Amino acid sequence: MFISVIPALKMPAGHDFFDYQLLDGTAHIGDLMLVPFRNRMIPALVAKISPTSEFADKAIALPKPDKILKLPEPIVDYCLQAAHELFVSPATLLNAWLRIVPKRLSLTEEPHTPTYNSHRPADAKQVEERYLINRYTGPNSILDTAQQEQSNGRVLILTPWQSRVDYLQKKLGCQGFHAQTAAGAAWKAWTGFLQEPHGMLVTTRLGAWLGICADVVIVDEPENDDYKQDELTPRYDARLLVELAAQNNPSLRVVSIGTTPKLSREPNQPPSPPIEVKLKVEPLVPGSRSNVESITAKTINSITEALENHQPVRVLHAVGGARGRIRCADCGWTMACAKCGYGMTNATTQALCRRCGHKESLPLSCPQCNGSDLAKSMIGSDLLQKQLDKAFSNADIKVLDISEWQLQNLPPQSLVVVTNLNFIGGYTEDIRRKERLVIAFRRLAAQASLSKCELIVQGPEGLVNECPTWLTDEGLRKTWSKELADRKQFGYPPVRLLIKLIVMSEVDVVDPITVQLQTALSQTGWEIRGPYPVENRPNTRESRVIYHLLPPSSLKREKIIPILTPFSSLGILDLDPIAFFS
């Protein structure tokens, strides 16, 4: 008997299987076992079993299979389909999913076989989308849904952030893992999940592939881009893996629980929940300054009043460190990172590049004009905290940057101040700035509403006057309609499919690739944009350029993939990019 396996190795696209001859014992599709490869034993997934092999004369003989565990049989087609969509080999994808397999394993001849246990009610939808203000507690929330669905089988909960994994697994009393979990503990968590017919597991995108082994998948904040990385290959999106798992396992139930419907939502999708919060907008206009940088005089008065009423105060300020940039007040010189060219941040005790992590000593003076004032830049959260501590001594007032905000719970009945609404969506390209800003603001407003907080939002006058409309379904629909119209004008997703091709090269030496793309695609109605150089890259990453490949609007996704597959050898192909230029 011959078995064809998918090895857990990084391999070029087009290399799918290795064949081995099994001399003794049995094997089943979905078995994860150890096989010999170049003087070592590696994990591999049994994909095919046959009495013959076209590589029989080269196939290595296995005296007896060393089985690690048994995975559901549909995982093979699931892995092949996902690899096909991601333009990578199944081996590379399996290697990314398994990550680090412990060297010491309990091997067995016949491991436990996980089976699907779904017994959901006949009227339960296979895919259900819910939009709630309170996503974590109360009726229809993640906690409530997980506890109800556990009787129907294994429940996998996917969440975009590591801190959320820790929170949810503590609340549910179950296992969880993320990128910071030790390899052995992560292995134990997900293999233990497979052993329990009614197990529960919380994880980030690292464990999204386990959806094919689950009976119910709950997706937390489905609108959040942190479900996909944008640096590595294979660059899989957890949400795509869930969709593919549902296609390969018709009994799988998927429940998405978020606050804001997608930009491309269908007319029959449920309305977004109205968010009622005590909101005050404060335009940043000339004459509004106070003795505390980035906070207006009116907001200072509101903070004073809140503290007099013994209210905690939390200030969301998107800029970390002491100063956003190290910039000369006299000549405008800005310190650039020696490694990647990105602007350096004054991180209080050192100069820090937030793009590549490079650190340097703070300059004592401007190298261009010898000026000594290098503080001509937006104040950072560290320095803002010091100014507020000086203005309000011994007060319960804390400044949070964006990453800290995601880890915090707002104190009940506190005053929440956003120093500049324009920045809370995080860094992104202009074409997606509004989309991410609206999502972030609705999430913050929901937090404030649940904690019965007062919310003061500072920012450009037009923006802060518009933001209250985003908290209603009608206002959100109008905003999304306008955003879609802008995307249509420029030809960007979701109005038009855009494929990103990332080529590891300098922009001045890719002419042959440009000619190759134009020759092969332009004549059939494709539009080729680029190449665009990638600026501000870390010194650990080689030079790269980006092409945008836009197929004819009539061409379906399943037809596009085989057309583009030959170009996967040129670089990284991304069918669903979350960032178009970086």
Number of strands: 24
Q: What characterizes the major β-sheet? A: 6 strands, mixed
Count of the domains: 4
The amount of helix comes to 25-40%
Categorize the overall geometry.
globular
Strand order of the largest sheet: 5-2-1-4-3-6
How far from one another are the termini? 49 Å
Structural class: alpha/beta
As a percent range, the share of strand residues is 15-25%
| Global Rg | 27 Å
Overall pLDDT metric = 89
Structure characterization notes:
With 582 residues, the chain is an alpha/beta fold. 27% of the residues lie in helices and 20% in strands. The protein has helices spanning 75-86, 90-98, 142-149, 162-172, 183-195, 238-248, 297-308, 381-391, 402-407, 430-450, 461-466, 473-490, 511-521, 557-564; strands at 2-7, 18-22, 31-37, 40-50, 60-62, 66-70, 127-131, 155-158, 175-177, 200-203, 216-220, 253-258, 278-283, 313-316, 345-346, 351-352, 359-360, 397-400, 415-418, 454-459, 499-503, 527-533, 545-550, 572-574. Strands 5-2-1-4-3-6 form a six-stranded mixed sheet. A six-stranded parallel sheet has the order 7-12-11-8-10-9, sandwiched between helices. Strand 15 and strand 16 form a beta hairpin. Helix 1 (75-86) packs across helix 2 and helix 1 (75-86) crosses helix 6. The mean pLDDT is 89.
